[in-house]
Amino acid sequence: MACVIEKINEIIAPENLVYAKSPLTNDDIMHYCPGCSHGVVQRLIAEVIEEMGIQEQSIGVTPVGCSVFAYKYIDIDWQEAAHGRAPAVATAIKRLMPEKMVFSYQGDGDLAAIGTAETLHAVNRGENIVMLFINNAIYGMTGGQMAPTTLVGQVTSTTPFGRNVDINGYPLKITDLIAQLPGAAYVTRQSVHTAAAVRRAKKAIRKAFEIQRLNCGTAFVEIVATCSSGWKLSPVESNKWMEENMFPHYPLGDLKDSKRADSGLYRIKSK
Amino acid sequence: MGELRLMKGNEVIAEAAIRCGCDGYFGYPITPQSEVMETLMTLRPWETTGMVVLQAESEIASIHMVYGGAGAGKRVMTSSSSPGISLMAEGISYLAGSELPCVIVNVQRGGPGLGTIQPSQADYNQATKGGGHGDYSLLVLAPASVQEMHDFVILGFELAFKYRNPVMILADGVIGQMMEKVTLIEQRPRWTNEQIQALSGGWATTGKTADRKKHVITSLEMDALMMEKYNLRLQAKYLQMKQDEVRYEVIDCDDAEYILVAFGSAARICQKTVQIARAKGVKVGLIRPITLFPFPDKIIAHYASNVKCFISVEFNAGQMVYDIRLAVNGVTRVEYFGRMGGVVPTPDEVEDALNQYF
Amino acid sequence: MAKVSGAVVVDIEKCKGCSLCVEACPTLTLMLNRSVNNRGYHFCYMQIPENCNGCANCSAVCPDSCISVYRLRIVH
C-alpha cells in the first residue's frame, strides 16, 4: 500500500499534468445538478477561449433558464439577456464592437420557443457570432415542463401522459431550420455524453469561434444534452436514454459547413 | 451657430442622433415614426461617423439590441410608437434593472390596442410609472417642438449616462410629423474606446483585461435582501433625479387665476388658448412640464395657493391630472380636459373647457 | 518496455457524485466513495490506482471540472 501511494505521488507532479481545469474557470461550485451537460459545455467554452487566447475579446451572452448563471463560471465579460433575446443582444454587441468575439449560450426553451424569432433572424442576417444551443428537450430551471424539442411521447410535468402531437405539435428541429438559412456558415449538432463526444464537441466549438474570425456568417453549435433531474433518471441512465431516444430524432454531425451561400440568390433586375 | 433647416420632427431625431455621435440605432417600422429609421438609412451614417443602423425583426429585438449595445458602454437608441413601446416594455425593465443608459423615443399614437395612427398622449402613465414590471422609473422628456426633438436626443444621452438609466423622449404624432425650422448642432465625433473606458470602464462589457475583474450586465439577484438593497439604490437614484433634473416652462403664471398644465403638443395648443383668453381679460397661465419624470410638482405646488383652478389638458382620458392633484395636495381645484383616440383639441375647445371652471 | 501510468486528483468538495467519470473510465480505476463530502455527495476516487493510465476520459466528461489528470511514462 505504501508503495502504491509513493508511486502515485511520483506521478502527481506538475510536469506530468495532462489535464487540469482552465484558469478561466473559477473555483465556484456550479449550481447545476449532478451530471448536467451544461457544466461540460461551459468548461469547453472556457478551454477554447483560453487556447485561442481571446479572453480579452470575448463577450458572452447568457439566457434565462438553467444556464442563466453561466456568467459566474467563466472569467470573461458577460451580458445576461432576457428570456429568448440573447441573439438580439449578441447582434448589437458584435455590430458595435466587430473586433470582439461574441457568443450566445441558450437552452431549448430560450432559443427554440420564446426566442425563435430572434434566433432565426440573427442567423438569417448572417450575424458574425457563435450561437451555442443546449438541447435537453425539457425546461430544467422551471421544473421539467415540455420544451419545443421534447420528443413525442416524452413525459414532462406539462405532458404528464407523454407529448401528444395532436395537442402539443411536434419536436422542433430548429438546427435543421437554421442550416437552411444563407446566413449560417457552420451548423453542427454534437453531444458531450462520452469522452470522444466531448473531444468532438470541443473541436466544433473551436471551429465555430475560428469562423467568427473569418466574418463569414453565423456559427451554430447544438449540443444534444441530458437533464437527469427533468428526465428523472440518474446521470448515467440519462446518457443511455439520450442515445436511445434523442439521437434518432436529433442525429449528430455537421449540418452545414460552408461560407455564406448567398451567391446564388435571386436579386431583382431593376430598382 | 449650427445649421438652420426646415425638418420633420422624426427626421430631426435621426439627424440629432448622428450629429451627437450616437453609436447605434435599432428599430422596427411603425407609424407615425417610421421616418426616423428611413432618414437614418438614407443618410448612411455608417459611412461617415461609423454609427450602426439596423432594422430589427421586431420591437422586442430592437430594445434588446439596445440592451446589448448599452451594456457595451455605447450610446444607443431606438424609436417606436405606442404599440411598439408596449412590446419593448420587457426590455425597458431589463435596461432599468441593469442600469443601462439609452434613449428611447415614443412618438405616441392613440390606443388602446392597435388603436389609431393619429397623435395621442395616452402613454403618459406607461412612460412615467415605469411601464414594465418592477419598481423602476425612466427619465421622461416631453418635447413640444421640432427643435426640442433635436435637443432632447442630445440631452437624453447626457442624462442617460449621468444616471446610468434609460431616458424616454415622449413625443406624439403631431411633433413627429410636423415640420418646423430647427438649428442642428455641428457634427460631434463618436466616443473613442478610451473615452468609453474613462466614462463606463467600471461596468461596461468592453472585454475583460488582466487588470480588472469581469463585468457582468444583469438584473438578476437570487438573494431577496440583496435585491432589496439594489432596489433601494435605484430609488435613491430616482430621488436624485427628482432633486436635480426637473425641467418645465412657465408662461404667464404670476398673476394667473387659472393655470393650464400641458406637455408636448397639448402645450402648444394651450399656449394659443392662453393668448385668446388673455385677450378677453381672463388671467390664465400655462405650466409646461418638460420632464414628466421627474414631475415638476414643486412649481405646481408653488402656484397652488394663488389659483382658483388647475386644468390638465391632455390627449388622453386624464392621466397627468393625478400627478397634478398629488402636487397640489388638495390646496385648490384640479380638473381635466382632453380628447382621446387621436383627436387633437383646438385652442377654442380648450378655452370653452376653461370657461366651465370660472 | 514502456508502461504508461496515470493518476487523478479529485477536488472532493466540487464533486457531485454523478458517476459519469466512473462510467467513462476504461480501466475501472474510479469508483464513488462510500463516504461523502461536506455537501453529502459520494465523491469519486481512485479505487484501484494501479489501473489508471492517465487517459483523461474522466476529466473530459466531468461536468464540474473537479478532476485533474497526470500521466507518466515509466521505462522498465
What features would you describe in this structure?
The complex is a heterotrimer of chains A (271), B (358) and C (76). With 271 residues, chain A is an alpha/beta fold. Chain A has one domain: Rossmann fold (3-Layer(aba) Sandwich), CATH 3.40.50.970. Chain A has helices spanning 2-11, 37-52, 86-96, 108-114, 116-124, 165-168, 174-179, 195-214, 228-231, 235-249, and strands at 17-19, 58-62, 77-80, 101-107, 130-135, 138-139, 145-146, 184-191, 218-224, 253-257. Chain A has a seven-stranded mixed sheet with strand order 3-2-4-5-9-8-10, with helices on both faces. Chain A has a two-stranded antiparallel ribbon with strand order 6-7. In chain A, α8 links the parallel β8 and β9. Chain B folds into two domains: 3-193, Rossmann fold, CATH 3.40.50; 249-356, Rossmann fold (3-Layer(aba) Sandwich). Chain B has helices at 9-19, 35-43, 59-71, 82-97, 124-128, 146-163, 173-177, 193-200, 224-244, 264-279, 297-304, 320-328, 347-356; strands at 3-8, 24-27, 52-55, 76-80, 102-108, 139-141, 166-172, 179-184, 216-217, 248-251, 258-261, 284-289, 291-293, 309-314, 333-338. In chain B, the strands form three sheets. A seven-stranded mixed sheet of chain B has the order 3-2-4-5-7-6-13, with helices on both faces. A five-stranded mixed sheet of chain B has the order 10-12-11-14-15, sandwiched between helices. In chain B, strands 1-8 form a two-stranded antiparallel sheet. The mean pLDDT of chain B is 97. Helices cover 13% and strands 32% of the residues of chain C. Chain C has two helices and four strands; from the N terminus they run βαββαβ. In chain C, strands 1-4 form a two-stranded antiparallel ribbon. In chain C, strands 2-3 form a two-stranded antiparallel sheet. The mean pLDDT of chain C is 93.
